Amino acid sequence: MQDRFKDSGVEVLGESLLKPGSGRRWLVAALLVICLLWLSLVLADTHTPLRGAWREATRGDTPASVMAAFRQGAFKAFNPALLKRFPRDALGSWVVLQPTADNAGEEHVLSIYPAPMGSVTLYGEQGPIRTLAMDDFEGDFHGHGRLAFRLADGKPLSTPILLKFEPSDTLTAPERFELQGLDDFLREDSNWLTFATACFAIMVAMALMALCFAIMLRDVTFAWYTGYMLCYVVVQGVETGFLFHPLGLSWLAGSEVLVGASAVALSVSFAALFISRFCDIQHYAPALRVPVVALGFAMPLIVLLRCSGIAELVVMAQTLVNPVLILGALLLLFTALVTGARGSRQAWFFLTGWTPLLVLTAMTSAQTTGALQNMDWLNDASIAMGAFEAIVLSLGLADRALTMRRDRDSVRVLADRDALTNILNRRAWTEAANRMLSTPNSERSIALLFLDLDHFKLLNDLQGHAAGDRALVAVAEMLSSELRPTDLLGRYGGEEFVAMLHDVNQEQAMQVATRLCRRVHRLEIPVNLDDLRLSVSIGLAMRSMGDTLETMIERADQAMYYVKLHGRNQVHAYERRAEYSTRHPFSPPRKGSE
Length: 594
Prior knowledge:
Layout: H1 2-18, H2 22-42, E1 47-48, E2 50-56, H3 63-71, E3 76-78, E4 93-99, E5 108-113, E6 120-124, E7 127-132, E8 147-150, E9 161-165, E10 176-181, H4 182-217, H5 220-240, H6 256-278, H7 281-284, H8 289-307, H9 311-341, H10 345-367, H11 378-416, H12 426-437, E11 446-454, H13 456-463, H14 465-482, E12 488-493, E13 496-502, H15 506-522, E14 535-542, H16 549-565, E15 571-573
Parallel strand pairs: 14-15
Antiparallel strand pairs: 1-10, 2-3, 2-4, 4-9, 5-8, 5-10, 6-7, 6-9, 11-13, 11-14, 12-13
Helix pairs in contact: 1-2, 1-11, 2-4, 2-11, 4-5, 4-11, 5-6, 5-11, 6-8, 6-9, 8-9, 9-10, 10-11, 13-14, 14-15
Protein name: diguanylate cyclase
InterPro entries: 7TMR_DISM_rcpt_extracell_dom1, Diguanylate_Cyclase, GGDEF_dom, Nucleotide_cyclase, Rev_trsase/Diguanyl_cyclase
Pfam families: 7TMR-DISM_7TM (PF07695), GGDEF (PF00990)
């Protein structure tokens, strides 16, 4: 039952994904949906133009003094539509945004994208109005993938907006600002939420499917893929705030930095362990197996150091993590290239799915240094590319599953087939015959033929074993062509063959056996120079009440020996008669038998 369940699962996965055209159509459809959703975000332009200025916070700052400094030109100008990184390692930074258009009477929303890891405070003339962070669960208005301040209705839009990026000890990423009408914001927010949900759903679905196959096939490769993909989901979920809004995982509040860093490290670990088996490093690049597996075990150790709470160990982990991540990514890329070049089919699946994501990660890291300021879409592209990678690697896993199934079936065929004649060997034939006898339909008539080649030992002695092998092959091919595909034919041993026929009565079985007997003789395989030809003696036994395979073989064997003693090259059916005795245990030939 378990084998059938495994075969069924692999067949459904493989044939649905990898049969000509099907996998490509699914992949193209999924990518088309993701791209359309993403383009709707990238091409949307519904914001009110802004001018921006900033400076680092100093002690004694008040909203009034900050705004006075802004009006005096003491702030540094920047373009709010481009990504900008603000220092937050001391007292934080002040940011002033000046709308350049006034749409009075319409409620507006100020959004900061991507959502910063720390908190941001909106100030008014009297002091702070509201502080927002990704893990903020107060109020009922939240942005998805960004921080969103809902501005007071009725206030002139031309009034400068004062923000403070609060101090934070985390690595800060660049942000951009957007001022929109409430309706436009809600529409864009809904589009982003649909896009992100679709991407995360694809990643989680592929991971859970792989987990099911890991259990069904007992292949840890699928489990490593599941761990890698789920860790990547956590990484993106933390960076975009998706875990907090809309998922509402409030218990993660305050620990998102630790959770994100741990997920990054573990994703690399799972990726290393995954690639070691998925790309078959042991076969294609054995020299790289040790460093790849070492990377897989090193990253969890760094996570443990990071979570230890011991200051010295935490600092050590923070120092090690980035160099190890960079070297690990390069190692995995190099390993996939080497194994792919040496013939690993799965390595190209890995490279197709993982390389674009690696490029996007490198570009996102470059943004923290001030580069690529106009590419604010990189964060959303990383989510889309994660879904793309999940689909591509799932196709690779399906290909691996089908390959495993084909290899297993090939081994099973080799184990079940006689090496010389390519028909069922004795063990496989016995198992198949027992299954046929155990059919629930007890009225089903079954006949068993026991065939033994005549003069075969003489043929071997006179012409050699090579001639005997050729004779066995010729007889086996003839028997296979004469019997129905659903009949069971096997080599019982030496020059003995067995055949089980279903849904035939004794008269029909005798006709089949007689035809086989004649066909063997018409092969005209010479035994000696005296015109002696190879022939076959066949014993027939019909299933009766209480029969087992052993009892049927025994009766057919006795009937075959009767033929041997009475002239060979004919058929005899075993019959239960009172005149059977130890002295003369065989009945005379049936009328019409040869």
